[in-house]
Target: 4-hydroxybutyryl-CoA dehydratase
Amino acid sequence: MGLRTGDQYVEGLRKRKHVEIYVMGKRVEDVTAHPFLKPSVKSFKATFDAAFDEDTRGLARAYSPFIGEVVNRFVHIHQGPEDLVAKVKLLRKLSHKTGTCFQRCVGWDALNTLYIITGKIAEREGRREYVERFIEYLKYVQKNDLALAGAMTDVKGVRTLRPSEQPNKDAYVRVVEEREDGIVVRGAKANITGIAVVDEVIVMPTRAMTEKDAEYAISFAIPLDTPGVKVVVGRQLNDSRRFEEGEIDGLPYMFNHEGFLIFEDVFVPWERVFFYKEWRWSGVFVEVFSNYHRQGYAGCKSGLGDVIIGASYGLARRLGVADKPHIQEKLTEMAFLNETMYSAGLAASWEARKLLRDGGWWVNPMYANVTKHLVTRFPYEISRLAHDIAGGLLGTAPSEADFKNPELRPLLEKYLQGVPEFPAEERLRLLRLLENTSISVAYLIESVHGAGSPQAQRLSIQRVYDFQKVEQIASSLAGIKTAMAPDLKVEPHRQTDSEK
Amino acid sequence: MGLRTGDQYVEGLRKRKHVEIYVMGKRVEDVTAHPFLKPSVKSFKATFDAAFDEDTRGLARAYSPFIGEVVNRFVHIHQGPEDLVAKVKLLRKLSHKTGTCFQRCVGWDALNTLYIITGKIAEREGRREYVERFIEYLKYVQKNDLALAGAMTDVKGVRTLRPSEQPNKDAYVRVVEEREDGIVVRGAKANITGIAVVDEVIVMPTRAMTEKDAEYAISFAIPLDTPGVKVVVGRQLNDSRRFEEGEIDGLPYMFNHEGFLIFEDVFVPWERVFFYKEWRWSGVFVEVFSNYHRQGYAGCKSGLGDVIIGASYGLARRLGVADKPHIQEKLTEMAFLNETMYSAGLAASWEARKLLRDGGWWVNPMYANVTKHLVTRFPYEISRLAHDIAGGLLGTAPSEADFKNPELRPLLEKYLQGVPEFPAEERLRLLRLLENTSISVAYLIESVHGAGSPQAQRLSIQRVYDFQKVEQIASSLAGIKTAMAPDLKVEPHRQTDSEK
Amino acid sequence: MGLRTGDQYVEGLRKRKHVEIYVMGKRVEDVTAHPFLKPSVKSFKATFDAAFDEDTRGLARAYSPFIGEVVNRFVHIHQGPEDLVAKVKLLRKLSHKTGTCFQRCVGWDALNTLYIITGKIAEREGRREYVERFIEYLKYVQKNDLALAGAMTDVKGVRTLRPSEQPNKDAYVRVVEEREDGIVVRGAKANITGIAVVDEVIVMPTRAMTEKDAEYAISFAIPLDTPGVKVVVGRQLNDSRRFEEGEIDGLPYMFNHEGFLIFEDVFVPWERVFFYKEWRWSGVFVEVFSNYHRQGYAGCKSGLGDVIIGASYGLARRLGVADKPHIQEKLTEMAFLNETMYSAGLAASWEARKLLRDGGWWVNPMYANVTKHLVTRFPYEISRLAHDIAGGLLGTAPSEADFKNPELRPLLEKYLQGVPEFPAEERLRLLRLLENTSISVAYLIESVHGAGSPQAQRLSIQRVYDFQKVEQIASSLAGIKTAMAPDLKVEPHRQTDSEK
Amino acid sequence: MGLRTGDQYVEGLRKRKHVEIYVMGKRVEDVTAHPFLKPSVKSFKATFDAAFDEDTRGLARAYSPFIGEVVNRFVHIHQGPEDLVAKVKLLRKLSHKTGTCFQRCVGWDALNTLYIITGKIAEREGRREYVERFIEYLKYVQKNDLALAGAMTDVKGVRTLRPSEQPNKDAYVRVVEEREDGIVVRGAKANITGIAVVDEVIVMPTRAMTEKDAEYAISFAIPLDTPGVKVVVGRQLNDSRRFEEGEIDGLPYMFNHEGFLIFEDVFVPWERVFFYKEWRWSGVFVEVFSNYHRQGYAGCKSGLGDVIIGASYGLARRLGVADKPHIQEKLTEMAFLNETMYSAGLAASWEARKLLRDGGWWVNPMYANVTKHLVTRFPYEISRLAHDIAGGLLGTAPSEADFKNPELRPLLEKYLQGVPEFPAEERLRLLRLLENTSISVAYLIESVHGAGSPQAQRLSIQRVYDFQKVEQIASSLAGIKTAMAPDLKVEPHRQTDSEK
Model:
């Protein structure tokens, strides 16, 4: 049936053949045992376990009309606004369990995007081959509960040039050969979340295109162990600590990872090609995907915000200041900022749009962009407040090794203690947790750049907001009869949408 | 049937007897003809016309199960989340028509609050007299489509003292005599929106109380022309201009008004008393009402934001700068801030709670408070950006009278013109509109204080957010076993909730 | 000697002949008696009285080496950093006395700018006629302690076109005829502070120019009663209240005014022409002036901030909440924001630059722009906090007339009272003061647009900050050898500097 | 003479005996060779080299009247406002050379504080033993150009209790024995900047005290190799990378460190005791020191801001987007925020106060607090903007080891390249620099907590701002005669000043 346990997922990773993954310059044999990637495996695994854990199974399961079975929600095609709402609620809960990004959303959003784009091409242009291939693929994914990554962001070379204008022709992933049984692709995708710990990856175009860019307008899915696929895992803050022993400093937490995905002339069979030279649809593709992904941030980042607020409150209690007015002021501000992000995501979900005749439930694009744009700002503010509450020790606390040194331990226990009922070690644990969540790639940089940079959301908001209409409203109130504004909306070429 | 036209409403106002209303020290005979109050009548009237206008009738009508008829939504008891959503959507549209507060929400929210409070007392304590009286009153209101004000905020004397502790015993409205046929009340309510142009007013308690405050824990409804009721209308920015002639400077716009409502030993018959000495329920009363009202701000203030953005965009076009990057940056920021407020209100509506066995649909308290708290901040930022775009002329533009002076007019037309296709007068009209919306009591001060001051929302957010739970989440991630936080939540006495 | 009393200034205004001033469409005979302009006269007058008042005479007097006498600082040429520091300190104190803009800075800054520009042309190009004419004029101004306005902002027509490209050739003030004894000018200047209550006005160019714009590159000074000069006074928030009787609502405060200054072919004799067809120096002219003026905002706006903080604190005391933590939090934030603006202005003064061989003390351009840019933001935030503290009554308080109505007065005194030791009338007075300062053209719109819009400061900051150098610093730390950044600085054409 | 070279400083560190320093649980033999501490030694060393480098020697040297020689400014007693200005200017330049905190300010500020406090006790109470001992010590420090740390922050136990009330009597450093030749102290100080790489440390009290706390009111200086002194160096973000090989990822940068300083019954001879049981002066001590230190942040943090802006601009150029309006907007905003912090610090310096009859030049307390309070906010905003410009790769870039893997290198060079003229490696180098500056303890957490938490500055601002006076100003403008505000200023007990 369409539900794997977390252990089955981990087992599956071990069965991948020939995956070519590099961490800090060295090839990794087993991602599930590697100190750098294990925390990432654990976090991804949580998405499978969620379908069995009592407190999340209601949210994490959904009935798929495609295979007539219950599936893990992370491979589900949204059947209505309630499904979109369930998405953000599930993501918040999963952040509570992982304390980081669990990396399975991009693939999920890619599935829903392909469902709409292939469906739309069928509806509008009568060409059904894409949607048919995709539905077959979807069934396969759902039946096997696959772990998917999604790869959109090209490396992009000179940012101001289109794919076909680049000095480096491979600056965007492209088709270098068309064969009877499929295509051969070359190029690289950057910032690919969770890429080393998935079964398959769905590749998508990253911007609007013109006819000259047709060879770049492609989308397909392949297993990660396809020949010619290379993954170079990126660095993270504090990553070297993962190689330390110990259960406090040695980063016992889960982490996400992101990586560089390189295609060295990789063959993709036709049945896995869902979009080919469809440059006209490329901008829409990016828009549909981005907004799905922007909505999701409401859930995962507010969940991470909860962890940070919780750690801050815990530290305040250990210092005996949790009831001081200025501390309560800060805690309340953090909660306010956090819930603002979340509520925008709920609005983006409840006010969903149906893009296909028989479904294709998409988020509300205005509120999805509002959500993500808030997420590009508020986490830095929440972190700042958390650091304020935590005290300077957040940046100066001794190491776990100091704490375990028998000569130092009694001194540190004596001097790190705040309110007597809490052991000093708890304070140290909360400080380390706060350090590694509030100052993490997942909470800061990813909040800025995931699902498109701040500027991408601004362009979307500018397109979606109806300036013409509001000028008419104002003109009417001002007693002006004739003012009709030309359309402020820029050409929907979308190219900046996924640009950083 | 339960729907009046705007004209019928205005006609109704004229039929009120003996209303004792003062504007700038003088008694007003006919509010519908008075220059100070006419703009307020027009704005209130829009809520009636909405039920007939093509673009709003869908939203502005609702079916009432109480009288088995279609009623104006402004007297409707919400039957589910969709009704709460319809509320904010309707309010946004009405702001587009009025450019100001239309003053009918407080009475509406009071009806829904009384429905829940009287219903709750019946459910919990078996006492049904309140709910029965209220349902009778509700039917009367719905059948006659009455214009209602709601009066909550007492004058409060020394803010830090409870009603019974005040040096001035009448600092909160109270019962001074209990008679067989009813009660006699004394005191005053401040900041009462729309009070001079309604048929009736619903009076509510303004804070949590103790047993000693029992005589202050009352709620009732009376016609505005009840003997002993005095209304002193408050000043507004630019109000004296209403007495000027002219169609540009003479404030041809609609406006809201707020007033002081004084009860000089006013008799209220029992059938209009819905809450009497129920001090235990007083805090809950305030909370239920406040959150209804906080949710509503998402609609009206974002609608007003649209007007301000529209005027700013119109001015930018007239200066020829609408396509400059820094202007688009500002317009986009305004739209972003505006939609953030709105989306929080949508979340507060969709995530509604059912408080009674058979209904009693209430907003989500977290998102309602988030909504209002955003509204206490963002309008000042939107105004600042609007002023930036509009240019310094916003504060220095000549008067309409200058413009109409035949000697000056050609000079002003010549020198005030920006882009040639737009007459200079249009620029002047948009400047005046922007001045009187972006710098208005409705958009600034009311955004801060309506439905409770910022601090009231902060206390609510602090109560609703579960700090204990998030500390447990953080502790669990940090490997701490035992940390159980005592409840941060302060005693739910609510007294600060409606304080400034 | 070079010092007039305030009364002498007022007397001087009455002696002006033929001034053609319009207020609300009507010609004004005596500005010192007109309800609309009297508050402005009083505020300007304070700059004269300051030279005699005990608490300000030390700051308000300076020794002029040009006439060998003590002069009012408002006509002084800065002789070193201490003079620039004295400027901002004096302005802050004067705001305390006036509660508004006192309107004499623009003329003062114009004098200092002309001293530098004419001096610079002499130093660089050997042409001394401008500086000689100017020094003669300066002596005349200092000896007679004249009240000067400065007029820079042209009406500008289509913002994106240069003067010579405009469809309306008079969109910028220009020379239409050159005669043996002088020039004839035509055009209009907008937003001219204090223009109706001065003796003379100094006209300046508003932007960088090209050779084609030469006829627009002019600066001169003329008495306000020169034939062909028309002044149309602009409206202000709440302005109509000035026509009311009464000492509370009738705006007993001082106010500034700004106006439209129209030149209908006005003759200017050569000895009053200080800059003629000097298009190459036009951009620098604007830059020198703007930065002087931006520095000054540190003083006047922080002084106004003090008034607003004082009124807020006074109201908090009257409600009995001045010691509540959240109120103290807000008061402290207001003080912090206010002192931030002020300290930037002090830095701009102390870090002055000497532009001429023998003086020409100018402000530091980076910190002057930082000062003004802070001023475009923080007053809105300070106002918001003031409104928060003041309570909703700020937007709903009854009128003075209500208060004086014998029937209403006892009721209002009873119900408006907070802490018993303060009469209700004091609360009303503080509310009106706060309304008319925190929501005034002087504190909001002028803070945004005076001395150039926010965008003008941003361009200046971008020009002054050395991006090239900091890239080198970063490159060196990163171990990059060769990175030399091309100059980010945009062409110094300055045209946006004094734009809207 | 009183000037050592950097190399002499390093040599001096090697000559310390018996220092007991722990890093990650292990005793460190030679701090100058230890991978964790070497970057810190280099940064501290820069303060010595500055006195010889051509571009800084003018700022870094000063003439000491105490020893009649030129000394390194870092051991200089300020002789006037110019010295205070030179301080912030020097600190900014040193940040450019180090890219981090150079750790010598605390000791410097401690010297100046002791000069004032001991001098003040002599002036006010006639007791000259402290000042005499201190001057002797000062001469010794100046002649030998010692590297000093300053230790103020006690571990503080339960934050809400005074020293004498703590369950742990050693929660604040205290005298446990008084001997004929000196005192014996016990306790610990936290967050001590640069502690492992100094010659001596000056210990100071951390809060205002009462008579019962007398044994805690002490200040003294001792060499770091005094028996009983233990240092436990704290962790930093990314610290484990220092153990990696390599010149890009292996953190080739300088870093600061902070540590835990433990006194296990350490003997201090009387000649090194500068303050003993002087509980009455303890609050003032903290205030004098804190404001010195708060002023300094203007220099070092704006210098660090320059590095971050430079790296961001360099990255924008490598992506080809440096001239895009939204990128320029962000760069300009960063510069504006950065210069705001700096200009407040200049004001704090120029507006210095003289606290002793013969000197004792102190900063202006209002502007020093404004400076530091800005520093607690703006770096987070600057970092956010830097991350926005840098792109997502900031959090996902491959490692140096990947880059050096011969198989991966050509691929990474191909795909990481932006604008062709810049090698991909430069981009990687700038990304790592930006990661390790914009997300560092020095730029974020230290900016919040150094020299006292944000709340400490707020209390100072509240004390220094004259609320009483501004209420009088407002009352006078409002026509209120009698309003005299009681003093808002809280008791100057100072205890919160150095609290978090």
Notes: DSSP finds 16 helices and 14 strands in chain B. Chain B touches chain A through 65 residues (CB under 8 Å). Confidence is low (pLDDT under 50) at residues 487-500 of chain B. Residues 286-457 of chain B form a domain with the Butyryl-CoA Dehydrogenase, subunit A; domain 3 fold (CATH 1.20.140.10).
